Every structure is written in C-alpha cells, then in structure tokens.
Amino acid sequence: MRKSDLPHPRIAEAEVADVRQVNQQYIDILLQQETVARNAIPGQFVMVRSWPDGDPILLRPFDIVHTDPDAGTFRIVIKVSGKGTALLSSLKKGDKITVTGPLGRGILSLDAKRIGLLVRGVGAAAVVFTAEWARARGIEVITFFSAATGGRLVCRDYLEAASDRLFIATDDGTAGHHGDARDLLDRYLKGPAQQEHPIDALFTCGSRRFARTVQELSLQGSVQGYIFLEEYMACGMGDCHGCAVRRADGDGYMLVCQEGPIFDAGEVQLD
Amino acid sequence: MTDREHPNTGESRSTPDPRLRVRLAGITLPNPVMPASGTFEYGDIHRDIMDPGRLGAIVNKTIFLEERPGNPPPRLAETPCGMLNAIGIPSKGTDEFITHILPGLAQYGVPLIISIAGNSVEEFCEVARRIEETGRADMLEVNLSCPNLSRGIEWAQDEKQLVHVVSAVRKAVKLPLAAKLSPAVADIGLMGKRAEEAGADAVSLVNTFKGMVIDLDRKKPTLGNLTGGLSGPAIHPLAVWAVYSVYENVSIPVIGMGGVNSTETALELILAGAAGVGVGMYNFVNPRIMVRIIDGLSDYLDKQNIGSIEEIVGAAHR
Question: CA B59, CA B101: separation in Å to the nearest integer?
C-alpha cells in the first residue's frame, strides 16, 4: 500500500493563515505553504520550528491533519507539552515559520471497502487526513474515538465530518460511552455490524494499548492493521537514526521517519 | 534559518570558489566543509534540499565489518543548545556498504573520507583493507572514539591502544588516515601527537562528549543506552579549545568539528587550526547548513580580502 517514489521534501517558509486555541492544551494551526499542501499524502508529517536559532534546538514533528491543495494550506494540531510546543502556541496569524516536508511514507493506495480508526486523544491529528482521503475514494470510515475526558477529544469536528459512523468513549464518561473505545470496537467486530458492513483495515494512533490491540487483531487475521507510531526524532529525514522502532522479526530496527510513521501492524515490535 | 531566499536547494554560488581549496593529507578538497560522520545520509531524500556535490568531502556513517542493529530506543534527548545521541552506529556491514552505498557516494565527484571502526584491531585493519581495495576512497577516518559502544571510546582514551590500532591500520593500507579523537581525555594534544607518531596523516576531533539525561517521571536515565554523546552548539567552545590544543602539538592537518552551526563557528575552528571542518548535529536542524557555510566562507574571504582559506588555518596561533 505504500511506495517511496513520492515528491521530495523541501524546506520552506510557511505563513500562519489561522490559529485557534482548541482548549488550554491544544492549538489548531492552519499554515499557508504550497509544497506541503499540494504534495502531502495521508500519513505524512512535517518538521516545524517557529523560534530563532538556539534553544530549543530541534525542529518538532507534527502530523498533517489535512491539506487544501487549491488554497495552498495545510493544518497541524499541537499538544502543548514542552518548550517547543509552548513557543508554537504563541503564534499569531501572519507569523512566518520554517517547515520541512512532506516527510515519511504515506498511504498511496488501499485495498479496502471500509476502514476502522481506533484513536485516542491527539492521535486523532494523524488519522483525519486518512479518513478524508478514504471517503473521497468511496471507502467507508468507522471511527472509534476516545480520550480521558470530553475536552480532550481533539479534532472531533474533523473526524465527525470525515467518518460515516463515529463512536465516542471517554474514561470519565463526560462524552459518549463511559469506558474504553476498544469495547465499542469489540462490539462492532463481534456483532452483526461486522457481518453486514465488515471493516477490512483498521488504523490506530495515540495509544500503545490500542496499538497492541490492533496488532493482535491483525495477527489473528480479523482485519489488516496499521499503526501510526511516534518516536523522538531530530531530523525527520533518516539522517539522525534517532526514531528507531524494533522490527517484529527481530532483525534490528526501522526508522519511524522513513519507514513510517504508519507501519503494518505485523512488522513492528511494541514494547 | 528560515531559508527565505532559496526556494530550492539554497545554492547561491554555482561555481566552486578556488580560494576555498584545501590540501589535507595529500588530497585536495574543493572546500573545507564536510559532514561529521553519522550526521548526513546521501539518499534521494535531500534531492530538493541540498546538493552533496558542493561539499568539500563526503563522510559516511561509520561502518563495521559486520552488520550492527544500533542501540535500543530512546536514542535521542534534546539538551540546552544541543542533543544527546545514543544511536550506537547501526551499520549494514562492510560488504553491503561497498556493494550498495559506496557507488552512490562516488557519484558526486567529491573526495570520499570513509569512516571505519572495528571491535578489534584486526577488524579495523580488515575493514580498511576492503575499503582500500575498492579504489574509491580518498581517505579513511578511523573512528576511535564513539562513546555509545561498550568498546568504542577506549581506543582513543588509552595512549597504548590508540598507537596500537593506528599503527596497525597504517601497516594494513596505504590510504591517508585520519584518526578520530575523543575529547574525553586528560590531554587531547598529546593524543593527537601519539596518533601522528603512529602514522596518522590527519586527526579529526572532537567526537561527542559522554553525557546523561534523567527522566523525572520515571526517575531513570532517559536514553535506552543510559548514556549518550553530547553534540551541538553547547560543545563548540570545547571543540575550539581541543582543536587549538592539538594544532599546537602536531604537524599533520586537523579536521575540526563540534557544535558548528554557522560560518562564524566554522571560522573559529579554522582559525584555531582546522584545515577541514565537520558539521554534525546541525545538519539535523538545517540540512542546508553545510552549503550555507561554504558560501559564507567565500563571503568572509571577500570581506577580509584574503586570497585563500589556507592562509588563515591556525591563524589564531600566530
């Protein structure tokens, strides 16, 4: 489903076209930058920096939430969790930032009639693009979306718009099912729904526990599973060899930035 | 940093500047700037970002005789103005390198400095011989100083071992040799001197400084390998001093590296005594930085009315 002959990444300036504080923790940023807007495919990411040289030194990786090739814009959603993301959170409309991308292997084609998305928290940012892409190709999208609390259902609007069916679960019961999104998935897969509208491929992002579940389902042969992985990375282009993930076959490591961030569920070892 | 002026590969000077040429251990580099080993891959991914054909030399990620997986993650930790890495030199091994990677490196028409290492003196020699047999390498960099391997750095920390391995590789091959030194020694000037006595034609320094970051939530070291090598602008003054000190002690050329992120930081190393300059972790931040520095050196020569970069190598000593 993936190939490596994609357009080559570029380094370019992007202008902040819009910025929206989703809540205290999450910021939604629309960037004007044509290379990424026109060339990115679902599953790819960008490296971003908005501050001058010095400290923090490294660029930060973000999933491309979606693109508008005609307008030349793309969107990222950031969770404010450290120095770099705190600096990004102070961006204003019209500010200029540096963007490298698009990076990583993405989805070029998919042999499925219906896909499932099992997502937690800000992991939603990684799958919106996939959902939109799938629907544009007549592939049905069933989403199982969870968070600790209702306020952390980031990108909910985007996922709602891009899903044929959306199931919500929260740990505290403030939205949707009070409990684990995997219960909802399990109910779907074991019930009449899967008989009538079978999910062929299942994507997951945002939780190691979810990733393990998808890996198990994939190994059992229930669905074809795909896992979005995150690892600390310095360059995003395969130079630093930092974002290593263990291969399932025991033969060393793969790099999230080059061979991911989407992996076939069977090819990686989850710790 | 924002690369406003360059829509594509960031190249402003299209023809090589002859004033930047440097002679280094019998080979001529078109300019002094090269990647520090392990910080730049030469794959297609950089095609629209920078042209490796503009570099002074191409330096590969160190190869061993056999394939190595590298260290378990997490492999990186950001630090103030720098980064700890504990990559552990993943390598496909020498045969794979010769068959699949080396021909690609040769296509740029730039001198090739092949970085090698071994788990034993015999292995260093074997890798060196195999690379020499290809006829494609212009120089070997003998990596004596990786801080992330169980037996990586000690070659450069013990005078006897350093002399042993350098003199053995010296006997095994005719190619010019650069010994890559560790800063984690009492007297790096002395280690440079010993490398020269053992037959090195150049020395390159500094490798990274061993360090640790601790995760406050887990209350354990952050890196999978526990320790890592510190690089980036944070170590630059340490590298300038190390180069300055080695330059005073040796008569072979010095390739200087450590925290270079600009023309100015490259020039400091040159003035301290470096005939070649390696750019390391900053390639991760800005993959165009090496080309920027090459252009910046030309601008400096213009401004200072200097005829050749070689005139100012070690000028801080005069």
Answer: 12
Distance from CA of A147 to the nearest CA of B (A): 21
**A219 CB within 8 Å of a chain B CB:** no
Q: A232 contacts in B (CB within 8 Å)?
A: 73-77
- Which pLDDT score, from 0 to 100, does residue A5 have? 58
* The pLDDT of residue A271: 78
Domain limits at B53?
A: 32-258
Chain A: closest CA distance from residue B6 (Å): 8
> Residue B268 domain-assigned?
no
Is B89 part of any domain? yes
User: What pLDDT is stored for residue A55 in this prediction?
Assistant: 87
**What digits encode the pLDDT tens for the residues A174-191?**
999 999 999 999 999 999
**Which residues of B are less than 8 Å from A105 in CB distance?**
none
Domain tally for chain B?
1
Chain B within 8 Å of A3 (Cβ-Cβ)? no
Q: Do B284 and A235 touch (CB under 8 A)?
A: yes
What confidence tens digit (pLDDT) does each residue in A47-56 have?
Answer: 999 988 778 9
Residue B66 domain-assigned? yes
Per CB-CB distance under 8 Å, the chain A contacts of B85 are: 234, 240, 242
Task: Establish whether B81 is a catalytic residue.
Answer: no
Distance separating alpha carbons of residues B267 and A156, to the nearest angstrom: 52
Buried b (16+ CB within 10 A) or exposed e, A138-163: ebbbbbbbbbeeeebbbbbebbeebb
A46 interfacial to chain B (CB closer than 8 Å):
no
pLDDT of residue A23: 84
Q: What is the mean pLDDT of each run of 10 residues along chain B (318 residues)?
A: 40 80 96 96 85 95 95 95 94 95 93 95 97 98 83 81 96 98 94 97 96 96 95 97 98 98 98 98 95 97 97 97
A57/B78 touch (CB, cutoff 8 Å), yes or no: yes
* Mean pLDDT taken over chain A: 93
**Per-residue model confidence (pLDDT) at position B152:** 67
Is residue B160 in some structural domain? yes
Q: Give the one of A8, A56, A96 whose C-beta lies nearest to B78's C-beta.
A: A56
Neighbours of A82 (CB within 10 A): 11
Q: How far is B284 from chain A (nearest CA, A)?
A: 4
CATH of the domain at B129: 3.20.20.70
